[in-house]
């Protein structure tokens, strides 16, 4: 199973069911590859917006802006790892990309309470590639 910039659009409460369904479709030793874009997608169209812009909003505010086809769950790469493990997948490889200056940039953003306890190194990951399997 392969996805490219899809999982960041799945509502977090629906992710466990989706991963469970994927696991039922895979044979023993089957695997999945997921490319995940952890940046604020608004910055793809508006370069003056930081890739971390959406991390400043509390859940109630963010839910008003992130609806329908524009939904982004804002899960960070380490939170996706937790979801895969909880679904019973083995993480075979996980590459993450932090672009130059992003860790320092992530430290300057006023963060919503959900993100304040996360290390800047986890917040700064803008893209990741996950390879997970069923053993």
What is the approximate shape?
A: globular
Average of the residue pLDDT scores: 92
Going by helix content, strand content and strand pairing, the class is alpha+beta
The number of helices is: 6
Strand order of the largest sheet: 1-2-4-3
> Helical residue percent?
25-40%
Number of strands: 4
- Taking pLDDT < 50 over at least 5 consecutive residues as the criterion, the unreliable ranges are none
Distance between the termini: 15 Å
Radius of gyration: 15 Å
Q: List SSEs in N-to-C order.
A: EHEHHHEHHE
Strand content: 15-25%
The main β sheet shows up as: 4 strands, mixed
Describe the protein's topology:
Layout lengths: L1 E3 L10 H11 L5 E7 L4 H4 L13 H7 L11 H10 L3 E8 L4 H7 L11 H4 L3 E7 L2
Parallel strand pairs: 1-2
Antiparallel strand pairs: 2-4, 3-4
Structure characterization notes:
This protein is an alpha+beta fold. Helices cover 32% and strands 19% of the residues. The protein has 6 helices and 4 strands. The chain has helices at residues 15-25, 42-45, 59-65, 77-86, 102-108, 120-123, and strands at 2-4, 31-37, 90-97, 127-133. Strands 1-2-4-3 form a 4-stranded mixed sheet, with helices on one face. Helix 1 links the parallel strand 1 and strand 2 (31-37). The chain is globular, with a radius of gyration of 15 Å. The model has no long low-confidence stretch (mean pLDDT 92).
Give the gist of this structure.
This protein is an alpha+beta fold and 135 residues long. Helices cover 32% and strands 19% of the residues.
Output the keywords:
135 residues, alpha+beta, four-stranded mixed sheet, 6 helices, 19% strand
């Amino acid at each position: 199973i392969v996805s490219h910039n899809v999982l960041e659009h799945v509502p977090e409460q629906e992710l466990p069911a989706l991963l469970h369904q994927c696991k039922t479709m895979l044979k023993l030793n089957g695997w999945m590859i997921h490319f995940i874009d952890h940046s604020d997608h608004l910055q793809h169209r508006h370069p003056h917006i930081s890739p971390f812009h959406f991390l400043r909003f509390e859940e109630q505010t963010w839910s008003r802006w992130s609806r329908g086809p524009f939904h982004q769950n804002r899960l960070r790469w380490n939170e996706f790892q937790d979801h895969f493990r909880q679904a019973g997948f083995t993480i075979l490889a996980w590459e993450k990309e932090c672009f130059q200056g992003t860790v320092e940039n992530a430290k300057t953003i006023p963060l919503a309470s959900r993100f304040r306890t996360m290390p800047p190194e986890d917040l700064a990951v803008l893209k990741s590639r996950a390879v997970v399997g069923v053993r």
